[in-house]
Structures are given as structure tokens and as C-alpha cells.
Specification:
Two copies of one chain form a homodimer.
Chain A lengths: L7 H14 L8 H8 L3 H13 L3 E4 L5 E4 L8 H9 L6 H4 L7 H23 L2 H18 L21
Antiparallel strand pairs in A: 1-2
The first copy, chain A, binds a DNA duplex (30 and 30 nucleotides) through helix 3.
Chain lengths: ~170, ~170
DNA sequence: TTATCTGACACTAAATTAGTATCATTTATT
DNA sequence: AATAAATGATACTAATTTAGTGTCAGATAA
């Protein structure tokens, strides 16, 4: 892969949000999401807590508790999730500090990188959870028509290899 | 930073190529490049060997030896260098295997990621060493006119923090 | 009162990236 | 011929980041 675009944190978070998005208004437990998506349970728990802290979701403790989508799916951008888990999009330090790079060779390269990073940031900023949910619905619809295979993910083990990873 | 775009390998490699590009036809030693750019010597040596193996440069052993740019700067793309050190740009495994993702949630997300990756790949494919060399020349010209500061990088230590890194 | 949840947080493991060291060989110079 | 300055090859360590696990306290529904 060209470069590490999304870490597992972000990947799992978005998949969890997709599950929550298909159950809007309902509380879904970490256990359920973990099993449905094949995400390691403890890892997922931390991720959900983070989403809570950032106001994307709310939770209810105790039996029949779980996590619920708090914001409108159209108001949740993939970039927001990336920023939670992989840090704020920031321009190169050099520009931020308004200094001229000590090293010119680095500088010309960085200038290009910054330009591309801005493109990437903008692109991820345009993908909303709402859009992904629509895509998911469409995908499920066609798959069902085609009788290709079933919807739910089968494996609940934390190390299943049926799923592609993003590296 | 949003995501790790370039590793040190790639960063150092491009900076080394920029040095070689400003000395076209001449052999420049790893020692010289290391000192001028503040790149750890041994690390740089391995990088230069890799550039050799990939035909971007050639080397001459012995005293007064070094590394020389072999290809035309306009024929060297930043993407080429990235691919040498960070691997081939590849589409997501799912697409490559022409399989439908077992996990639909991953699938819709991956589809977007692939789209963005292709943009990034295209962008890095359009940046040539020749372009960077032109930028560098311009930068040096204006800096000289402005009397802002000197051209050469001063620090030769391997851990200097004056230079911005790309993370 | 019990099973099922989340909150908080400490911890370990795995993978990747960055950097170092060594020895053999080549080559220009003296 | 001897020496110094260079690369080739390759093994190794260190640092950092990413991924994953474990535990205990408290909340809540049945």
C-alpha cells in the first residue's frame, strides 16, 4: 500500500458508526457491534468511549445499555473520525511557525506534500456517515437481488482474515 | 498530522536526489550528502544503495567515488521513490481479488479510500525531480535577493531539530 | 440479586520505522 | 606498494507507533 491511510482505530470506529447508523435511536452494545463486525471487543470498547467523549454518540450504562448515534449521520464526516483517532489535520510545522525552512530541499518537497494533504483532507471531509450508509444500503440491495451471499459478517473472532484490511 | 505520508527513507531519498540533481553528471559521496542535508550517514548509505539498485543513480567505488544521478530529473517521479521505499501503490485487496467484501461496512469505506488513494497516487506521479529542482532554484534565488538567510544547511548532526519533519 | 452493560485506565504485544555497526572490496593518490 | 576514501552487502539494535488485553468499579433492567 502506498501509505497508511487509516489506522484500525479509525477503521473500526467508522464501521461501528455504520452499525449505529443502521439502528438510529437505538442503543447497541459493544458486544453486538464487536460480534457483527469482527472487531476485538476490548479494543472496540475504548473506541466507543472515545466517540462518546467526542459527542458523536451517547451511551447508556447497565443491562440493555449500549451506544447510540447522537449526531445526524450527515453531520458526521470521515475526517472528524480520523481527527479523533489520528490527530488533527495540521499544516506542516514550517508553515505553521511562519518560518522559512532551514533546509530548502525539505521545503520544496514539503510544499508539495502540504498541497496533497489538503486535497486528502478535503476529500475525507466530504464523505459523511450518511453517504456511507446510503452506499451500504445500495450495496445490500444489489447483493440481495443477486443472491450472491448473505449480509451479516460471520466471523466474530478477533483475528479473522476474511475481511480486507486497509494497509 | 493527518496521516503518515512519507517515511524518513523516502524523505531522505528525495533530498539526496535533489542534491544529486544540483550536481548532474558529478559523483557526490554519501558523506557529503549526509553532511549537507543532516541525514544520518549510515542510514543514507543504505538509501543510496537502494536508489542504485533501482537505476535512479549509479555509483563509483573508491576514492573520489560517490553516487551520480543516472536518469533525467524529469523522468524521476516522487511516486517512484515512494514505491521503492514504501511499496507499490496497490488497490485494496478486495478489488484486486475481485471478491465481494465479506464485510459490507468495510467495503463502502474502502471504496472511498481507494478513490482517494488514486488521487494521491496521481498527484505524486506528477511531481518530478525536475520540478522540485526548479522550485529549489527559485526558492534559493528569492532567498538570496531577500538576504533572508544562507543557502546551505548548517547542522550536520544526525538529530538536529531545526528541520521540520513530515509527520 | 444477578447478569449485562459502560467508565476509567493500566498494561502487554506486535509491527513498523529509524538508526548503527562491521567487514570486504574498489579506486585515486602519493 | 601503501594509504585514504569511497561503495557493496548485510546484520543488528533502538525507538516509536499501532494493536490488542485485562481489570475493577459502578449503573441498570429483569
Amino acid at each position: 500500500m502506498l501509505m497508511k491511510v487509516l489506522t484500525k482505530n479509525t477503521d473500526y470506529a467508522i464501521r461501528a458508526l455504520l452499525v449505529l447508523g443502521t439502528h438510529e435511536g437505538e442503543y447497541v452494545s459493544a458486544r453486538q457491534i464487536s460480534q457483527q463486525q469482527g472487531i476485538p471487543y476490548q479494543f472496540l470498547r475504548r473506541i466507543l468511549q472515545e466517540l462518546n467523549k467526542n459527542g458523536l454518540t451517547t451511551s447508556r450504562e447497565g443491562a440493555h445499555g449500549g451506544v447510540r448515534l447522537e449526531k445526524n449521520p450527515d453531520a458526521i464526516r470521515v475526517r472528524d473520525v480520523i481527527e479523533i483517532f489520528q490527530g488533527k489535520v495540521e499544516l506542516s510545522e514550517c508553515m505553521f511557525r511562519k518560518q522559512i525552512c532551514a533546509n530548502r530541499a525539505s521545503c520544496v518537497l514539503r510544499h508539495e506534500i502540504m498541497r496533497i494533504e489538503e486535497i486528502v483532507s478535503r476529500e475525507f471531509g466530504q464523505i459523511t456517515l450518511g453517504k456511507l450508509l446510503t452506499d451500504l444500503t445500495k450495496l445490500n440491495a444489489t447483493a440481495t437481488m443477486d443472491h450472491t451471499d448473505e449480509f451479516e459478517i460471520i466471523n466474530s473472532g478477533s483475528h479473522e482474515k476474511t475481511d480486507c484490511d486497509h494497509r
